[in-house]
Amino acid sequence: MGKLISLVLLALLPFAVSAVDVYQLSDPEQQKAYETLTSELRCLVCQNQNVADSNAELAGDLRRQVYEMLQQGKSKEEIITFMTDRYGDFVLYNPPLKAKTGLLWLGPMLFLLTGLGMVLWFIKRRKKATISAISSGQQAEIRRLLEDEEQP
Amino acid sequence: MLKFIIPLILFIVIAVFLGAGLKLNPKEIPSPLINTPAPVFSAPKLNAPDDKLTPADLTGKVWLLNVWASWCASCKEEHPVLNELARQQSVILIGLNYKDNPEAAKQWLAEGGDPYNDSIMDVDGRIGLDYGVYGVPETFVIDKKGVVRHKQTGALTAEALNDTLLPLITQLQAE
What we know:
Distance between the termini of chain B: 59 Å
CATH architecture of the largest domain in chain A: Orthogonal Bundle
CATH class of the largest domain in chain A: Mainly Alpha
Number of strands of chain A: 0
Strand order of the largest sheet of chain B: 5-4-3-6-7
Number of domains of chain A: 2
Radius of gyration of chain A: 31 Å
Largest sheet of chain A: none
Helix content of chain B: 40-55%
Oligomer: heterodimer
CATH topology of chain B: Glutaredoxin
Number of helices of chain A: 6
Structural class of chain B: alpha/beta
Largest sheet of chain B: 5 strands, mixed
């Protein structure tokens, strides 16, 4: 039992130490905005982490920037524009749909359609192959046998 | 015949894309600042903290803004290249001393040589944030009108300097 408890506690450890330097805003609405923004912004140094989770110095600076801008009453859109003006769309985990990012958004759809098209093509070809595998002589034979069955 | 050609074409297409992907550097993020006015700052000089420098002071000149710090390992690598550039005196070189301790920075310059016309201090990284700095060293080329024209991320090599930066600087100085 003691072992189990310590195991559970050990598993919970990452959640206890994950907070880096969390800023607290008095307005719960703003606090929510802070949390969404920092989780949607990508840390540019360690590219597979968001700003909320990263320990990198730059992520700390970006968290501070988001916090300060929210305190100044800036909207979420204003903060996102501020970030993309400096770091480009790369800073967003959810990039906007534009000509430049079109392939990123439509690419998966394109692959799906290509795959579906290929599957349909294969099915059609196999159907044709099974039908033509029977010669016209055999087909006549089948028809004759079936007709025999129907008239006992 | 088609049975072999289609997989072969597919293979070639995939190989070309993956091969191109290998050559791309994911750390190199295109800067949205290119062809926009250089972000304004007014920052104390490293060697004379009471004196401030702003981009407006450099209007009419082509200049480089080189982001560096004494804690940055790659900066040591590019330092000889910058020293050589300073010897040629072909362009104004401004250093942005990024998130550094001024004393450590001064010592670093005393030891390795000071290629900068001036270095400015950005102790808390706010100027760096305005320039979209994410990996020191970085170098910006700014034209006579104060517009950012090029950004080099990572250590400046002799090749990058000779093949890209110097021709661009010559072109911008003629504008």
